[in-house]
Amino acid sequence: MTDLTVLKAAARKAGFAARKEAFAKGQGQAAEILADFLASHAGKPLAGYMAMRTEIDPLPAMAAHQGAVGVPVILGAGQPVKFREWSPGCAMVAGEFGAFIPAEGLWVEPEVVIVPMVAFDALGYRLGYGGGFYDRTLEGLRAKRPTLAVGFAFAAQEMDAVPIEATDQRLDAVVTEQGVRWFGE
Asked: Is 126 annotated as a binding residue?
């Protein structure tokens, strides 16, 4: 294993522990803060996610969004995700890794992406699950047009520095139960 692999594994372990502890305390006003943040992006296609285990839940904000909303569908290892149109009450089936996805629907190409994570830092870098799906996806979307990447996490998931590599895509902002943080250039 490389040093970076070891660093990321240790950071993930710490991030998962912090997230689990924060999850047990409740989400607070996080969903409302996210919905308020997204209101200024009404009409733009949005990508969210279906929360799993101890992830913070963006569903109320996704349901309130005025515009198309998609959720990630993993097509295969080493590929970017695509986003299938979602609406409250639509038929869902289990997808890869147990995440629920719409049983059918159109593909959505988002301009705003709510990004799940294990941890983040003050520079706007995030630590995901290690598959690189969101990094590849954001890179592809940003190559076509400006795409806003909004991390959604508990404030306790912030760490001093996320171990990064050249392919890691930076977040534009992160929304937590404590508010919105923007990351500058």
From this structure: yes
How many C-beta atoms surround the C-beta of residue 175 within 10 A?
26
158 is in an annotated binding site: no
Kindly tell me the sign of the dihedral angle through the C-alpha atoms of 40, 161, 14, 134. positive
- The fold adopted by the segment(s) 3-182 is Rossmann fold (3.40.50)
Residues 10-20 have pLDDT tens digits of 999 999 999 99
4 — phi, psi (to 5°)?
-65, -40
Q: 60-77: per-residue pLDDT in tens? A: 999 999 999 999 999 888
Q: What is the residue extent of each domain of the chain?
A: 3-182
Check the annotation: does 165 bind a ligand.
Answer: no
The pTM for the full model equals 0.94
pLDDT at 64: 96
* Helix, strand, coil share of the chain (percent; to 5): 30, 20, 45
Q: Is 127 annotated as a binding residue?
A: yes
